[in-house]
Design brief:
About 50% of the residues lie in helices and about 10% in strands. By secondary structure, the protein is α/β, with parallel strands linked by helices. The structure holds adenosine-5'-triphosphate (ATP).
């Protein structure tokens, strides 16, 4: 078969098979690839006859990508694989190119398969190969979540069950979940690790109900070693899915199997979640990813620059640019990555290849403009007082109890961030306080943002409110 020749025959499959032998190793080849009998290649669907559904399921989970890649390297134009047992007329089992997505069940014993006799299989979400522990930059705001994730990824006796990770958008929950799954699979290739979003859980559940396969569904979920469900807030308000999730959850906990859950808020704050589910979710270790600090953002940018360098050879990021981006783009890591990618793309289009601060301002003007939006000190004081439910007169007044002094410091901190006012000017607007008091307040909040999740969340929320003014 020549490159560009979008056909495949029994013979050309023979050539691809030899390529695969080198890729998958002798044992895997003999057990899984050798039994595949070429059927047809139609409209990008490569169909094989397999001796049993078990082999079809197995190959579709663990070798699908490799087969597609090798076939396409020889120009076959394959989009997906299908398997039929015995005669080609049988119903094909589709493969969606998700071998990595499956429960990491590598042991061929029937008792360990996630496909019951009916042939029902459940594949999880595809893991992202970039989301590893090595690629995760650790700083104060995420160190607790990172340590807990690492501990769970070591496997062994289950200590925190479930591990519940929560945090705002784009702060690394999915990254950490994927990193745990990779690590568990590397340590124990026989472990059945099922990672999926809550949305996929619901989808599978509804499908099983519709196809009258609930027994299989239950059996599959109860036979995994580690269940990871991302964005669990999705099932809030979906009563029967919650019910099923609750039973799955209990069954696994009873068997001492590890469960890892993520959500955008703490269990108790997810509205529409049944009380008993909330209490189950709270029964293990609940850790949050705090909004990023300047240091963490800078660390992440430095790490990502190294990654982008290979992709954009010749582009240089000028002095002070990363610091500027880390200062100005504070929302989340996803946005930070997007900004950096834009700078590299920009650099690759200009002759000298160096992206300096001026070019950065130009290139990221829209992202920075949102941040540049100025709020007045009055507006800041009003929003902060509202947020903490205190009077403005108390916010700027002399009372020193914590319920007033903390909001006051938060307001000072935001006044420094959102306005061009000098410290003495801010001091005057806060009941005539000295500039050293203002500086002390600003520093106290900067520090608390790194160590106290409540303050970090308050500041983050107020920032969003003030940007929207
Ligand atoms: N500490 C970190 N170090 C390196 N990269 C990070 C870090 N935190 C987040 N990222 C990156 O930021 C991006 C967004 O992270 P991720 O998808 O894990 O966020 P999330 O919390 O799951 O968000 P969502 O709530 O939107 O699902 C990913 O590309 C991830 O690799």
């Amino acid at each position: 078969m020549q490159k560009g020749d979008r056909r495949m025959t029994r013979d050309s499959w023979g050539i691809v098979k030899q390529d695969l032998k080198l890729k998958v190793g002798h044992n895997n080849f003999v057990t899984w690839i050798e039994p595949l009998e070429f059927g047809s290649l139609d409209d990008g669907i490569l169909t094989f006859r397999v001796p049993s559904m078990f082999i079809g399921n197995w190959v579709s989970r663990y070798f699908c990508d490799q087969i597609i890649d090798e076939a396409n390297a020889r120009g076959a134009g394959v989009r997906r694989l299908a398997f039929v047992v015995g005669e080609p007329a049988n119903r094909p089992v589709p493969c969606n190119g998700e071998p990595d997505a499956a429960p990491a069940d590598k042991a061929p014993a029937p008792a360990r398969t996630a496909a019951p006799a009916s042939g029902m299989t459940i594949t999880g979400a595809r893991l992202n190969e970039n989301y590893t522990f090595d690629a995760f930059v650790v700083g104060k705001p995420n160190e607790l979540a990172y340590s807990a994730a690492r501990r769970v990824a070591e496997g062994g006796p289950v200590t925190f069950n479930p591990l519940f990770l929560y945090g705002g958008v784009g702060l690394g929950k999915t990254h950490l979940m994927n990193a745990i799954a990779w690590e568990l699979r590397a340590r124990d290739p026989g472990a059945r690790v099922l990672y999926m979003s809550a949305e996929q859980f619901m989808y599978r559940f509804v499908q099983a109900l519709r196809d009258r396969q609930m027994i299989d569904f239950k059996q599959i979920f109860r036979s995994v070693d580690v269940l990871m469900v991302d964005d669990v807030q999705f099932i809030a308000g979906k009563d029967s899915t919650q019910e099923e999730f609750f039973h799955t959850f209990n069954a696994l906990i009873e068997q001492g199997k590890q469960i890892i859950i993520s959500a955008d808020t703490a269990p108790g704050e997810i509205s529409g979640l049944e009380r008993r589910v909330v209490s189950r979710l709270q029964s293990g270790l609940v850790v949050d990813l705090h909004p990023t600090s300047y240091e963490l953002r800078l660390g992440i940018l430095q790490r990502k620059v190294e990654q982008f360098r290979d992709q954009f050879a010749g582009v240089r990021i000028g002095e002070g640019v990363l610091e500027m981006v880390a200062h100005r783009i504070t929302s989340n890591v996803r946005e930070l990555e997007g900004a950096l990618m834009r700078l590299f793309a920009f650099g690759s289009l200009i002759d000298r290849g160096e992206v300096d601060q001026e070019a950065t301002r130009e290139c990221l003007s829209d992202l920075m403009r949102t941040y540049d939006r100025r709020a007045s000190i009055d507006e800041i004081q009003r929003k902060v007082a509202d947020h903490y439910n205190i009077r403005i007169s108390d916010l700027v007044g002399p009372k020193r109890t914590r319920i007033y002094s903390r909001p006051r410091q938060v307001a000072m901190f935001l006044a420094k961030e959102f306005t061009d006012r000098s410290l003495p000017e801010i001091g005057r607007r806060f009941g005539g306080r000295d500039h050293t008091t203002i500086l002390h307040g600003i520093r106290a909040i900067a520090k608390l943002c790194d160590t106290d999740s409540q303050t970090a969340e308050d500041v983050d929320m107020l920032r969003r409110v003030l940007r929207d003014i």
